[in-house]
Design a protein that fits this description.
Helix content is 48%, strand content 10%. It is an alpha+beta fold. It folds into four domains: 11-175, Glutaredoxin (3-Layer(aba) Sandwich), CATH 3.40.30; 185-329 and 416-604, Glycosyltransferase, CATH 1.50.10.10; 335-409, no CATH class; 608-680. α9 runs antiparallel to α10 (231-246). The radius of gyration is 26 Å and the shape is globular. The protein starts with 17 loop residues before the first helix and ends with a helix. The mean pLDDT is 94. This is Thioredoxin domain-containing protein. InterPro entries: 6-hairpin_glycosidase_sf, 6hp_glycosidase-like_sf, Ssp411, Ssp411-like_TRX, Thioredoxin-like_sf. It comes from Geitlerinema calcuttense NRMC-F 0142.
Length: 683
């Protein structure tokens, strides 16, 4: 029920989150998470219904339409509960705590997340999507509401006891003890082989349907393959990359990946597009190109980045969060084609060949419509049809341009334009790396502009600390560990793309803030929230990498690089402590520790520091060598400068000079680019 149809307005009307504003005219008396809502629950001794979702979530929209817009169901909710709506992307702390609670209670989780709490915030019952009436093997929402409220009235003490026990069990994971051992290459080899055995040998990826693009785990495999030359792992990595990029989960017309595939073959996506997926996957395909030399992977990376610049970038340089799965109330409508419309756009001469290439048919490949996908990648398709690959690439580009132009006339899916610090830091890293390794100044400039946006709009002027969220000119919410960690990483990558030492200075300042406000001084690692954050039922400490890397794994990776570039061994010591915390956990399920394993590979590799000395013209040939090689165990800086790493590094004989150092000890400087390329092997 939209604002034009309902006179009702609730407390969400004052929020900036598009997801919360979507619910501001529900007949439910929603509150945002606030002291006011919690106090009201205590004063009226009512349980809390906490409903968590996000704007691009299809089933969140379904439950809103079926239940939250229904005046009768809303009346039951208002009578029996204090109702709180939370945007999980704004409040990952609440999402983490209560998702863990529901997973422990039910064995599964997801969004929308609906959790019932005591007025003190203790969870005692929960689930995900509830239909308005019982179906799909799920109880009806009204039945759930009335049963939970009755249980709270009649068995309050029992529920409180169970809830406190649940919270205590949730805290057990925080008790991880640091290992006496660090990661070594033999340990990492075993973990990589464990991952390889879990890859689907027919369609790539991990598991059956639904399939998620586990970019961080694949980045770890790329490092392992680079280091060992494991041919089996290499073939399975390429199979996965090819299937993902050829499938319907990848937008073949406009670039960018959707959230996940609903089937095992990567054909049918859940059509929402998330900034973080595209940040991680653009980086994965960039690294895959460097590892293999396959230009198809470079093209995928470029298409993703162009999509982000076109669709997901604000005029000020911030990156928006998500695009919805739905348009005009129908999931995927924007992205699919009928055979008739496809043929009319392509034109009679090429229609048959283009339809074969994009798998377009009269019967359709999904719900009587067509999701463009590539059954055969461009080079193979051209070869089998006796077409010159270069000529076919130009032809395919022409088809895509025609289809894109026609699609742009459709009503686009909604876009969540809030700007989240963590996701922006992630995207900044990807643009900075691509700018440096592709030699594309536009990408470097996008990263620089984003860094300036963050420092100008998401940094608190008085304290230098960060906000979590920016929307409509307002920055809100204290930043979490992941916000600081991913901005630090982005700034480190931006320094390597520009050699501007200001970015290292800012990164080190944020690292010191993390040490002061987030560090677990007893066991190492970092809490998800700062020590002066709102007091919740638990102070989370994340270890597993899920859809995004956890703050602890990013810190473990970024601090190693920052230690080398800023000349601060304490940062490296902190990273080592963090890695020891998960050393004995990873073996249970390495798929959930992908970014940790990338950090561990860097740690075990004895990373190299590369210093290029001379003016930009003199060092350009060395930069060109770096662009052509996968060198994941290096950091790069340029002299002259004030960083400790640069001390004494000068051009030799007035020529551009490269210094390759390891553990702060340098080999003989080289002025010959071929010798430099040799030194880079296995770097």
């Amino acid at each position: 029920m939209s604002a034009t149809h309902s006179p009702h307005t609730n407390s969400l009307i004052h929020e900036t989150s598009p997801y919360l504003l979507q619910h501001a005219h529900n007949p439910v008396d929603w509150f945002p998470w606030s002291a006011e809502a919690l106090a009201k629950a205590k004063a009226e001794d009512k349980p809390i219904l906490l409903s968590i979702g996000y704007s691009a979530c299809h089933w969140c929209h379904v439950m809103e339409h079926e239940s939250f817009e229904n005046p009768e169901i809303a009346g039951v909710m208002n009578r029996l509960f204090i109702n709180i709506k939370v945007d999980r992307e704004e409040r990952p702390d609440l999402d983490h705590i209560y998702m863990q609670a529901v997973q422990q209670m039910t064995g599964q989780g997801g969004w929308p997340l609906n959790v019932f709490l005591t007025p003190e915030g203790i969870p005692f019952y929960g689930g995900t999507y509830f239909p308005p009436e019982g179906r799909y093997g799920r109880p009806g929402f009204v039945q759930v509401l009335e049963s939970v409220a009755a249980a709270y009235r009649q068995r309050k003490d029992e529920l409180l006891k169970q809830g406190h026990q649940l919270v205590e069990e949730m805290g057990d994971f925080l008790k991880a003890e640091p290992s006496q051992n660090s990661f070594t290459r033999p340990v990492l080899d075993k973990l990589a082989q464990q991952v390889v055995r879990q890859i689907d040998p027919y369609n790539g990826g991990f598991g059956a349907a639904p399939k998620f693009p586990q970019a961080m785990t694949l980045m770890f495999l790329a490092r392992y393959i680079h280091r060992t030359g494991d041919e089996t792992a290499g073939k399975l990595l390429r199979l996965t990359l090819d299937k993902m990029a050829g499938g319907g989960m990848y937008d073949q017309i406009g670039g960018g990946f959707c959230r996940y595939s609903t089937d095992a073959e990567w054909l049918v996506p859940h059509f929402e597009k998330m900034l973080y997926d595209n940040a991680l996957l653009s980086r994965l395909y960039l690294e895959a190109w460097l590892l293999t030399g396959d230009t198809f992977y470079k093209d995928v990376c470029v298409d993703i980045l162009e999509y982000v610049l076109r669709e997901m970038t604000s005029p000020e340089g911030g990156f928006y969060s998500t695009q919805d799965a739905d348009s005009e109330g129908v999931e995927g409508k924007f992205f699919v084609w009928s055979k008739q419309e496809f043929d009319s756009v392509i034109g009679h001469e090429d229609a048959a060949l283009a339809a074969e290439y994009f798998d377009i048919s009269a019967g359709g490949n999904w719900e009587h419509a067509n999701i463009p996908n590539l059954r055969k990648l461009p080079a193979q398709f051209a070869r089998e049809h006796g077409i010159d690959p270069g000529q076919f690439a130009r032809k395919a580009k022409e088809w895509r341009c025609k289809l894109f132009g026609a699609r742009e006339k459709r009503i686009k899916p909604g876009r969540d334009e809030k700007i989240l610090t963590a996701w922006n830091g992630m995207m900044m890293s990807s643009f900075a790396q691509a700018g440096r390794l592709l030699g594309e100044p536009r990408y470097t400039e996008a990263a620089r502009k984003n860094a300036e946006f963050i420092l100008g709009n998401l940094r608190v002027p008085d304290t230098g600390r960060l906000w979590r969220n920016h929307k409509d000119g307002r920055s809100t919410l204290n930043a979490y560990l992941e916000d600081y960690a991913l901005v630090i990483e982005g700034l480190v990558e931006l320094h390597q793309a520009t050699y501007d030492e200001a970015w290292i200075t800012h990164a080190a300042q944020f690292a010191r803030i993390v040490q002061e406000h987030f560090a677990d001084k007893d066991k190492g690692g970092y809490f998800f929230t700062s020590q002066d954050h709102e007091r919740l039922i638990q102070r989370p400490k994340e270890f597993d990498d899920n859809a995004t890397p956890c703050g602890n794994s990013v810190m473990a990776f970024a601090l190693q690089k920052l230690a080398l570039l800023a000349g601060n061994p304490h940062f490296g010591f902190s990273a080592d402590q963090s890695l020891r915390l998960v050393r004995d956990l990873v073996g249970r399920s390495p798929l959930f520790f992908g970014y940790w394993l990338c950090a561990a590979e860097f740690h075990a590799s004895k990373p190299r520091e590369i210093v290029l000395a001379g003016d930009r013209a003199q060092i350009a040939p060395f930069e060109q060598i770096l662009r052509g090689q996968f060198a994941p165990f290096c950091v790069v800086a340029a002299a002259p400068g004030k960083l400790p790493l640069l001390e004494g590094k000068e051009p030799v004989g007035g020529q551009g000079t490269a210094y390759v150092c390891e553990s702060f000890a340098c080999q003989e400087p080289v002025t010959d680019v071929k010798k430099f390329a040799t030194l880079l092997e296995k770097a």
